[in-house]
Specification:
The complex is a heterodimer of chains A (559) and B (331). With 559 residues, chain A is of the alpha+beta class. Chain A has eight helices and 22 strands. Chain A has two domains: 104 residues, no CATH class; 394 residues, Porin, CATH 2.40.160.10. Chain B is 49% helix and 18% strand. Chain B has 16 helices and twelve strands. Classes of the chains: A alpha+beta (559), B alpha/beta (331).
Chain lengths: 559, 331
């Protein structure tokens, strides 16, 4: 029953004529409610206008009673006419297909409503228009869907090659899509304050603020097995010296061929002191204790290392240039001889994989170095970082130098204990009188700590249970610590003809007791406060006679 | 095990591998050649096995031609590239130096073993009455073509339209630009390759007309039925010459030079040409041309060299960043 009311107006170009017949047609159209107006054309002219009035049962109203739409009508709704065939691969995009269905259903419903409200007149014409409209909308939806599909495809493809960048508490990381290239940017800064409450008239250092460590770290992994690490340092008063370029702290490659067999080459910490091997950012006290002064710091060399028996036994053995006690070095060019130091360490964490909480955190081991040394030996400093023992200027190392250090830690819940002993035996020569002597110094420390806030104590960084938030209920992690540490100088340094040290300005022993509190606001920010009392044996200088009080504070940010 | 036995075992395994080598080739191709190369690879493997006794497996990679070239430049180890147009191989030669700049002279017919052209695929009954290029710029018409930035077919589409507009306007470039601009205004979605556009048009039911490789249009009809689509051949189109080349540095490294060369040469053989014709690529050899003459309509075909001064010039002027396409197509 579809009768198009107007065909393409004939004689479009002949406007004058059109105006006349158009007016007639318009009058006729306006005169009727339902029906058709027919025009007859002869020789490009409208010669007749015929109106047909339609009187019919109102089918549309029957089909669309105002109360609702008969479900039976729905299948007859306008469908996409020349229906582009659907060859959707259901495996490829089921989700989209479903969505598309629901969108189409919504559209159909909208169409029905429109249809319902206009059904009382011109139902057939509206259906044709709606059909066209729905077809247009259908195309638009399909285009949107396809665009989304293509976006997904291209982002999936991009993901295959795009590097992943992450940022978090453990630093900033870039990783290639195939994980063959990983770069982590980390670092830490320690800003310290050092106060000496009982100033001595002479010999005591000034109270000072200083930058203790300013260390950017670049580390990463290449091809899954080759780790590298470069750690620089720009602390207060850093200077370049020939044998100790402290700007470059770490620079090494570690080839992890197997967990049990790894080769590390470059500059890094010699595998000796327990406290020395703990990261400067995770120290319990602001400054390390005496054993670390007897043992080597960083050196250049090659080391074989690995974890055995499911990570319960860790070994390292390496060849290094050799450094004096507590020292670091980059080269053997000016100091020390051709001989290299051998350093080795064995450390067991036997219950590492056990369920027994009381034993899991127990680790113990022993380390040693041996080698021939020449050149100037280093003196030793107090807990407050003031020199209390120095060799006289004419003393040089000349001969074998060996060290042994038994060491252990124990962590159980919030409790932590670290104990370390060190012996350093070195051959020295006084160039002033030719005296040669082997001196053996010893040092030890015992340090205990407790997390008041209940955190799991650890040799590594501690994660506060409730990080500190301003105005929140998190107070971070609070840790209290106590430490006793001693360094005993071989008495032979002071005795006999041509002694190696001046007994007035150098002490033969230093004993330090320290208390500390650490506030870990979160994993990255820590404030520390230490008080250390040091007594010295021997010596007549005001510092050595009166002892030392040192109050150190530190603000640290590490990531 | 005694040493002599070890030596014997080694010698035997060496000898047996000398008898039948397992060779792998990677053919990096453009989007619509999947079916062509599936059949051709099987034929070549058989041929090579018969000739040398070696087993050749040819792996295929498909995508928009420009995109594929980029992948090879970025390190995809293709033994051979069979791309939609010479420029994409030029780009590999220029940017990666993995093959010489005169690669196109190494095989007959400028290294294009088969040709094609661009035509229109419309829905059955051609409801929008599309007959020629000028129908594509009408309002309310939806044209499907891939992106000339990534697809070789799309660049042929674009240049064919450009060529048509030039001819109709008496070589007025401004008019041609306006014409092609209008055409791309009718493009609702740009796929990255020709096969993607076929999916858009055929499977997703989008658009009134697909600008398609001739072989792709035939394939769509073959796969999805002549009752759903029909082909419209415009008054003018462009001779599309997909080209092939071995990637010298890769085959030298992998030791596959001889077999890769033979692989491409086999495209020119009777069997290769016949397979091309069978998959609706216009073959070169007289024998195959004669055999498939009936399936390819004859029409005026402009060429890239005569109408656009070669691919390098066309690429620079139209498709490189800042070229005319960037000017006329703003998504």
């Amino acid at each position: 029953m579809s009768e198009k009311a107007s065909q393409q107006p004939v004689g479009q170009s002949k406007k004058r004529q059109a105006n006349t017949w158009l007016r007639v047609v318009q009058e006729q159209v306006e005169a009727e409610s339902f029906g058709s107006v027919e025009i007859t054309v002869h020789d490009s002219k409208v010669i007749q206008v015929q109106r047909t009035e339609k009187l019919r049962l109102d089918r549309a109203r029957q089909l669309f009673p105002p109360s609702g739409l008969p479900a039976a009508f729905i299948p007859k709704l306008p469908r996409r006419p020349s229906g582009p065939p659907q060859f959707l691969d259901p495996k490829k995009r089921p989700l989209m297909k479903n969505r598309s269905k629901s969108i189409r259903a919504t559209l159909a419903a909208a169409g029905l409503l429109v249809l319902g409200s206009t059904a009382s007149f011109a139902a057939e014409e509206s259906v044709a228009e709606l059909r066209a409209l729905i077809q247009q909308l259908d195309q638009k939806i399909k285009v949107l869907e396809r665009k989304e599909e293509l976006d997904k495809e291209s982002s999936a493809e991009k993901a295959k090659t795009t590097a992943v960048v992450t940022a978090g508490a453990s630093g900033f990381q870039m990783r290639s899509a195939d994980t063959n290239f990983v770069l982590k940017i980390r670092g830490y800064v320690q800003a310290d304050a050092r106060f000496y409450p009982a100033d001595n008239s002479s010999g005591t250092k000034n109270d000072t603020f200083l930058l203790r460590r300013v260390r950017p770290i670049f580390e990463g992994t290449l091809y899954d097995k080759y780790d590298f690490r470069v750690m620089l340092d720009f602390p207060s008063g850093n200077m370049v010296t020939a044998n100790n370029n402290s700007f470059v702290q770490d620079a090494y490659l570690n080839a992890r061929f197997f967990p049990e067999f790894q080769v590390q080459i470059g500059k890094f910490k010699e595998p000796v002191g327990l406290e020395r091997l703990q990261s400067g950012a995770n120290l319990l006290f602001i400054e390390r204790s005496y054993p670390s002064q007897l043992l080597p710091n960083r050196d250049v060399g090659i080391q074989i290392q690995g974890d055995l028996f499911n990570y319960t036994l860790n070994y390292q053995i390496g060849a290094f240039n050799g450094v004096p006690d507590g020292g670091s070095g980059d080269t053997d060019a000016t100091n020390f001889d051709d001989e290299k130091d051998i350093a080795a360490r064995l450390f067991a964490i036997p219950f590492r994989n056990s369920d027994n909480d009381a034993l899991r955190g127990l680790g113990f081991g022993v380390s040693a170095t041996i080698g021939d040394h020449e050149g100037a030996p280093r003196g030793y400093s107090s807990a407050g970082q003031q020199s209390f023992f120095a060799y006289t200027g004419t003393v040089v190392a000349d001969g074998q130098h060996w060290r042994v250090s038994p060491q252990a830690y124990y962590y159980w819940g919030p409790f932590g204990l670290v104990a370390e002993y060190a012996v350093s035996s070195l051959n020295l020569r006084n160039t002033a009188n030719g005296r040669q002597q082997e001196l053996t110094h010893t040092g030890w420390q015992v340090a205990a700590s407790w997390f008041l806030t209940g955190e799991e104590n650890s040799f590594k960084a501690v994660q506060p249970l409730k990080p500190f938030t301003v105005g929140g209920d998190g107070w971070g992690a609070w840790e209290v610590a106590a430490r006793v540490s001693q360094l005993d100088i071989d008495d032979d340094a002071f005795t006999g003809a041509g002694p190696f040290a001046n007994s007035a300005t150098a002490a033969s022993a230093a004993t330090s007791c320290g208390l500390g509190v650490n506030w870990h606001l979160n994993r990255n920010v820590k404030f520390s406060l230490n008080y250390e009392l040091t007594n010295f044996d021997g010596g007549t200088s005001p510092l050595l006679e009166n002892g030392e009080q040192a109050l150190f504070a530190r603000a640290q940010v590490a990531f | 095990m005694k040493l002599s036995r070890v030596v014997l075992a080694l010698a035997l395994s060496l000898a047996s591998s000398a008898w039948a080598k397992d060779i792998k080739l990677l053919n990096v191709s453009y989007d619509p050649t999947r079916e062509l190369y599936t059949e051709f690879n099987a034929a070549f493997s058989k041929h090579w096995k018969a000739k040398t006794g070696d087993n050749v497996t040819v792996e295929q990679s498909h995508g928009g031609s420009g995109k594929q070239a980029r992948s090879v430049i970025d390190g995809l180890p293709a033994d051979v590239v069979t791309l939609a147009l010479a420029y994409d191989i030029d780009a590999i030669a220029d940017k990666s130096r993995r093959l010489p700049a005169d690669w196109q002279k190494r095989l007959p017919n400028n290294s294009a073993p088969y040709t094609s052209m661009i035509n229109f695929l419309v829905r059955k009954g051609n409801p929008k009455g599309i007959k020629d290029w000028n129908d594509l710029v009408k309002p309310n018409l939806s044209v499907i073509t891939p992106n000339p930035k990534t697809s070789g077919g799309a660049r042929w589409n674009y240049l064919a339209a450009w060529g048509y507009a030039l001819e109709k306007s008496g070589n007025d470039e401004a008019k041609a630009k306006e014409f092609v601009g209008k055409l791309f205004k009718n493009v609702p979605v740009l796929d990255s390759g020709a096969r993607g556009s076929t999916t858009t048009f055929v499977q997703r039911g989008i658009g009134d007309v697909l600008l398609a490789w001739e072989n792709e249009a035939f394939l769509a009809i073959k796969e999805f039925g002549a009752d759903k689509f029909e082909i419209v051949t415009p008054s003018l189109s462009i001779l599309a010459e997909p080209t092939v080349a071995i990637v010298d540095k890769i085959v030298a490294k992998k030791g596959t030079e001889a077999v890769a060369k033979a692989y491409l040469e086999y495209l020119y053989s009777d069997e290769g040409q016949d397979i091309a014709g069978k998959h609706f690529y216009r073959p070169r050899s007289e024998k195959a041309v004669a055999k498939y003459a009936a399936q390819f309509p004859k029409l005026k075909l402009i060429t890239i060299d005569s109408s656009f001064g070669g691919w390098r010039a066309a690429q620079k002027k139209h498709f490189d960043d800042g070229g005319i396409f960037d000017d006329i197509y703003k998504p």
